[in-house]
Here is the input.
Amino acid sequence: MNSPLNITHVFAPGHETVLRIEDRATGLIGFIAVHSTALGPAAGGLRMRPYDSQDAAIEDVLRLSRGMTYKNAAAGLPLGGGKAVIMGDPAKLKTPELLRAFARAINTLEGRYWTAEDMGMTPDDMAILAEETRYVAGLADGKFASGDPSPITARGIFQSIQTTAHHRFGTADLAGRVVAVQGLGHVGAHLCKMLHHAGAKLIVTDIDDARIADAVDAFEAVAADPLGILSVEADILAPCAIGAVLNPATIADLKVAAVCGGANNQLASDKDGEALHKRGILYAPDYVANAGGIINVATEILEIEDRASFVDQKLAALDDTLNRIFQRATQRNCSPNDVATEIVDEVVTSKAA
Ligand code: NAD
Here is the structure.
C-alpha cells in the first residue's frame, strides 16, 4: 500500500498550475510546474538537485517551465511548457520508491504534464517512473522510445551555426571558420565532429582534461583553458556546457562575432542579449539552437511512426524560425533574443485565443 502523497497548489501568477509534492515515507519534496498548455500538453524534464531552499526550487521550476513553453513553441511542436524538480542529492536520496511516488503525482495532472530526463536523472530512472505513469518520455526501450537526444540536438545546433554564419558573415560555409566550443560532453562532442567535417577550425575546452585530449586528437582542435575559452579569438563561440556564461563580465571580454551553442539559459539575464547586440555580436537564442533535443523527445510523446521525417521537417522549420528571428532583428536593429521572445509570444497567444 502506497503512503498518501501530500499535494498542494503553489500560487504562481503566469503559470497554469504549480504543484508541491511531499511524501514523508520516501523523503520526497518536489514541484511540478505547468506553465502553458496553449499549444498542447506541457512537456519538460525532471531535474533533481540539492536546492538550498524550497523557494530556490520553486524559482528554478517556474523559470525552467516557462523556458519550455518558449522552446516547444519555437520548435513548432504541439506541446506546452512544463518542468519538474525534486529537492535533494540524487546520489543520496534518489530511490525507486521516491521516483514511483513522484510518478503518482504526475498522474494527478492526467496528461497535462509529460516528463523526461534532465539533470540528476537517467534513462533507468525514466523506466522506473514508467512503472507508475504513462506520461514519461526519454525511455531506452519501447516502440516509440527516442533514446539519447544529443545527436539530434547537435544537428540542430550545427545548422543554427551555419545560419548564424550566413547572417553574420554572408556565407553559411564553415570551412576555415574558427569555432570555440565550451563543453565536450554529449552535445559538444557530436557538434565538434560535424564542425570538423565541415572544415571549421576548433578551439575546445572542458573541465575534464581527457575530453579535451580526445577532441584535440579526433578533430585537430586547439585546447584552451576552461577559464579562458570565453575570451579566445574566434569567429563563433558555441557554449555547450553550463548556463549563464553570457553575463556582463564575460560579454565585455568576448572576442567573437557570433554566439551559437547548445547550453540552456546561456544569458544570465535578458539584458545580456541587448549587451551582445550593442557589442555587434550576433546571438542565436539558445532555446532555438538547441531545440533538436525536445524535437527528438516529442517523437516519443506524440508517438510519431516516421521519426526520421518528423525530425527532418521540424529541424527545417526551426531553421526557418531562426532565419526569421535574425531578419526581424536586423530590420529593427535589436537583439535576436528579444525578437525570439516576441515571435514565440505571438504563436502562443494566437493559439490560446
Ligand atoms: P554533458 O553533461 O554530457 O556535457 C557537459 C560537458 O560540459 C561535460 O563534458 C562537462 O565536463 C563540461 N563542463 C561542465 N562545466 C564546464 C565548464 N565550466 N567549462 C567547460 N566545460 C564544462 O551535457 P550535454 O548533454 O552535452 O549538455 C550540454 C548543455 O546542453 C547543457 O547545458 C544542457 O542543458 C544543454 N542541452 C542538452 C541537450 C541534449 O540533448 N543533451 C538538449 C538541449 C540542451
The mean pLDDT is 95. The longest strand covers residues 28-36. The two ends are 44 Å apart (CA to CA). Residues 6-65+80-129 form a domain with the Rossmann fold fold (CATH 3.40.50.10860).
